Automatic annotation (TrEMBL):
Enzyme class: isomerase
Pathway info: Carbohydrate degradation; glycolysis; D-glyceraldehyde 3-phosphate from glycerone phosphate: step 1/1
Pfam family, one: TIM
Protein's organism: marine metagenome
Protein name from the UniProt record: triose-phosphate isomerase
Keyword Cytoplasm: yes
Amino acid sequence: VIAGNWKMHHGPSATRRFFSRFFGEFSPRFEGAEPTILIFPPAISLPTAAESRGGRPEIGLGIQNIHWESKGALTGEHSASMALAAGARFALVGHSERRHVFGETDAQVERKVAAAIRESLTPVVCVGETLDERRGGQVEEVIVRQLDAALLGVPEGAKKPILVAYEPVWAIGTGETATTDDVAEAHGILRRRLTEVRSDGFAQGVAILYGGSVKPDNAADLLAVADVDGVLVGAASLDPESFARIAESG
């Protein structure tokens, strides 16, 4: 799974241009009918992305944030059902910027996961430690706590209900990239915890992505790490050429 988080970039016109170039000039090697590439545009660009994508089943669209309520006096928010109607089939939940810029809590992440699943959106649950937490030897404590909270929002018996993205906060938008050993350790922790909390079958069915300064020149190495099932790309997903190169790495 190769996922691109556009953050607050690319309005409708830029979104149309992106897809035109992505499909017209580059040809990533897609396989199967399940989405292998996910794109999370700004909410205002979701309908344009859905239109521009056409009927290509290998491209999945998602929303960058949802509220857990279905409606209400919540200025500026979007419900899971609204995201679904706009063309989203996935939802980022608990991204590091939501947690650290907007103060999103583990309890809120749990409610958003539950809301997404209730409306048939697949949550992409983001977890990751800060630099201070890493230096303090708290990596496992932090990412397990965040994962456990998110799993409280997943009904027992749910089939293939979530994706998980490990994004060390200190490597988001900084140009720093975790070493392959760092990534392998964190992804191994997450896979084991999924098994402990649910089952081995559940754990093996959850794709765990790595996010943190993923670029065309490091994507292949990251994707070769054990328990890395894909990448969550930030800045490098804004350019069709660089994103296509990363997609081809998978």
